[in-house]
Amino acid sequence: MSATRIGTSHPSSARRLVLRRIGAAILGTGITLITLIALLWAGAAAAPTEALMVQDGGSAASVPSSDGPIVVAVALGRSGTDAADALAPYEVFARSTHFSVYTVAATSDPVPLNGGLSVLPTYTFEDAAIGAAPAPDVVVVPAVNDPAGDDETELRDYVVDGARSGAQILGVCAGSRVLAATGLLDGHRATSHWSRIIELEESNPDVTWVTGQRYVQDRGITTSAGVTSGIPAALRLMQQLAGDTEAERVGADMAYPSWSLDASTAIPVQRFAPTDLGVGLNAVLPWFRPTVGVALAEGVGEVDASAPFEVAGYSSATTALPVGAGSSITTAHGLVLLTAPTSAAPSSLDRVLVASSGDPEERASLDRWARGQGIPSSTLRTSSGHGGFDAALADLAAHGGPGLADSTAKMLDYPARSAEQAQLWVPPRPGALLVVACALALTAGLTPLLVRVRQRRRPAGHSVRMHSA
Question: What residues act catalytically?
Answer without folding.
Answer: 173
